[in-house]
Amino acid sequence: MNSRILQVFQRELTCPICMNYFIDPVTIDCGHSFCRPCFYLKWQDFPILTQCFECIKTTQQRNLKTNIRLKKMASLARKASLGLFLSSEEQMCGTHRETKKMFCDVDKSLLCLLCSSSQEHRDHRHCPIEWAAEEHREKLLKKMQFLWEKACENHRNLNVETTRTRHWKGKDIFHRLHLSKAKMAHRREILRGMYEELKEMCHKPDVELLQAFGDILHR
Questions:
Q1: What angle do CA 127, 132, 134 make, to 5 degrees?
Q2: Cβ atoms of 86 and 129 closer than 8 Å
Q3: How sure is the predictor about 177, in pLDDT bands with cuts at 50, 70 and 90?
C-alpha cells in the first residue's frame, strides 16, 4: 500500500482525543467517532447534552453504541503494527530461527511455535499474541464499564447529597452531610483514576499489554 494512503488509513482509525487506534469506538450524532473511554472522560460531569470535540456541534450522550465496523478495522491496524514488531530480528527465536508469535501466559514470554510445544512449555497456557491481546483488551473494557457505572452511581448520589445540604440548616446535620459529600467526591476521583489507568493499559502495544495485564488487575 502506498505510504501516503497508509497514513490516511491510519489517521481515520485514530481517536482525535487520545491519538491512538480506537478502542471500543462510538459514533455520536454528528458522525464523528471517539474511543468510548475518551468520550466519557472528556465530559466527566455526565451532561445529557455535550459538544463534539471535532465540530463543536451539540450532541446527546445517551445510549452510545459501539461502532462495530470501526472497532474491527482498528483491531486490524493493531495487528499490522504487531506484525511489523514481530518481524524484527530481535523477535526471532534464537534456537529455531522462527518468529515468536505465541504468548506464554505462565511466564509472560514470547515463543515461537516450536518452543511453545516443547517440554518446558507444554503444560502452560499459550496462544497467538494478536488473539490474546484483543481478548485481554475486552476484559479490560468490561472492567472499565463496571467502574464507569459505579462512577455514575456515585455522581448521582453526590447530586442528591448536594441538594439535601441546601435544605438543612442544623449545624450537626450539615456537618455530617458535608463529610458524606467529601467522601463521595474522593471516591469519584479514585474511580476516575482507576478508569484512566485501565484506558492507558488498553492503548499499550500488544506485548506490553499482555505482560502487564495480571499486575494491573491485581492492583
A1: 155
A2: yes
A3: low
Contact status, residue 93 vs residue 114, Cβ threshold 8 Å: yes
DSSP classification of residue 167: H
Distance CA 167, CA 114 (A): 71
Sequential DSSP letters for 164-213: HHHH---HHHHHHHHHHHHHHHHHHHHHHHHHHHHHHHHTS-HHHHHHHH
As assigned by CATH, the class of the 88-124 domain is alpha beta
Q: What is the pLDDT, as a whole number, of residue 142?
A: 92
Least confident of 19-28, 116-125, 126-135, 162-171: 162-171
CATH fold of the domain at 3-69: Herpes Virus-1 (3.30.40)
**For residue 90, what is the DSSP state?**
G
* pLDDT tens digits for range 37-57: 998 887 765 555 677 778 888
